[in-house]
Amino acid sequence: MLDIKNLHAAVNGKEILKGINLSVGKGEVHAIMGPNGSGKSTLSSVLVGNPAFEVTKGEVVYEGKNLLELSPEDRSREGIFLSFQYPVEIPGVSMVNFMRAAVNEHRRYKRLEPLTAGDFLKLMREKRDIVELDNKLAGRSVNEGFSGGEKKRNEIFQMAMLEPKLAILDETDSGLDIDALRIVAGGVNKLKTSENATIVITHYQRLLEYIKPDAVHVLYQGRIIRTAGPELALELEEKGYDWLKTTE
Amino acid sequence: MKPEQQYIDLFAKYENLIRQYSPEVMNRSRTQALESFKRQGFPAGKSEDYKYTNVAQAFAPDYGLNLKRLNIPVNPYNVFHCDVPRLNTLPYFVVNDSFYDGKQLEAGLPEGVYAGGLKNFAERHPQIAGRYYGKAAQIDKGGVIALNAMLAQDGFVLYVPENVVVDRPIQLVHIFRSYVDTMANRRILVIMEPRSQAKLLICDHSIDNVRFLSTEVVEIFAGEGAGFDYYDLEESDVTTTRFASIHIIQEAFSNVLANTITLNNGLTRNNYHIELNGEYAQSTLCGMAILDSEQQVDTYTHITHAAANCTSNELFKNFLNDRSTGIFSGRILVGEGARKTVAYQTNRNLCATRDARMYSKPQLEIYADDVKCSHGMTTGQLDQNALFYLRSRGIPAAEALTMLSIAFTADIVDNVRLDGLKDRLRNLIEKRFRGELASCGEIL
Lengths: 248, 444
Description:
Oligomer: heterodimer
Largest sheet of chain B: 10 strands, mixed
């Protein structure tokens, strides 16, 4: 589904990613771990086409297409979704209008008719239940005044609305208490099928107790320095990252 | 020749004609207005309050005036349909500066309420007219006010007696319609007696493709405990120049909202003078402008807290595109003895292009203790993070920009206390940002 080859990327002229290689197949869950500043969020930003990041070398093939040539909106319509580490507050844009615009753009891309108001609201209700998102939040401006946990739940709600093929969860667990973590992880698991894939970026093993990865990668100084099964996450939890840095 | 001279000459030549077609209450101050205009002249280009708007230049062209009060060839009730669903207003019309007395709407008003021409009102209630006309917008407060008092011949009056509540919003449509360059001197007088309530919506339109110049002097008197909403929607065009001066005097426990929205214009100067003269008066003053090409809106506000325990809340926003210019100069003066004043002022501006210009000057003068006052100003660009967030959900860049632009205006629209007007404004603002011709009324 996704093939990243020798990916280099820079922000403000400073190279952050220094040759990433990663393959993700249908139905798989990949965890990316690593110390602060190792390039985890840069990788997710590059994959969704954030213009603040510049790809300097390498290629990314997604479903047979050159991903790096697509605009951010087309990547979304092709089925890529990023759950932001820091979801943006947008005062004055209501969640309902935002989601209606997004869902209908996705439908237009697939040459489907826009949803009627009734069908759209029904869809909102169904998907809201997946992450137990309060009806009141759905009536407010995008993320405005939401607590940290509500923002993360709202990300997974949007994911449920857009049904992506490849979901990237960028530190979706940070700032969540145990209950919120369970709800968010439960939401992700409910959306999981044999057809879609997930990349989970996290600092902690905790989230991976809920979302079981098929592979764990350790990112350090812009490169993946270790790939192994889920047991690697436990090992990291116990030993930290230093032992990997030294073996590298 | 100084730009003032043509108006002085005009007055000298046509004084009799002007007087002949005007009510006595307006004639009373004419000579004084002339003297004052001669003394004050137009504000100098270098003066601090008119740094960015060249008044003399705006008044220099030769505009025609309808001093003889020739009949308006059309009946606006037949041709002008202001399409505001769910907003069941009582519509009145002023074409150029003549009140159109085509239809009697008083049947729809509670007893004792007057909405209509100033001339007619002054004949019916000479004492009330005399007590209020020109008392808030004093002639010496500015050259343009003096000029207006010198030349204006009619206007619109809303008079609501004590304890009367007018449920239906009253709408006054100003229409500029002419085949030659035309100047209009407009007056609005609102008298809200104690504990009365009403809402007034003004819409400024320009129909023809000639140059229009208006002076608009608005006086609002809110008696003790009165409630009044003033909505002012300008939808003129690039050939229209407007100098408006809005004066509001509030007594104790009164609550006045003034919300001015400029959707389309040429050059606009809006002056606000608000005096809170009685304790516990509340003032909400807000406005916004959406500007492109070379359009300019220059907003000047002066709120005086003269009594204790009053609240004023001020919010102005400008969305600037192309080579447009926005100016905001806002002063809050908390006088001695105005204890426990609460006064907030906010000015937020977005420059969508490199060539757009915004000049902002917030000022706060406090001469009393125990007050809560703040002012804040920001000028910037649309939030790139928000833009990316919307795009990352599949919304095209252009659409995301439009959504964020509309969002910028949301809190101004939220301040509107008429649901039907709120919906209509959202619709007009969206059309404006999408570049579709937007007008609240349609001329058939």
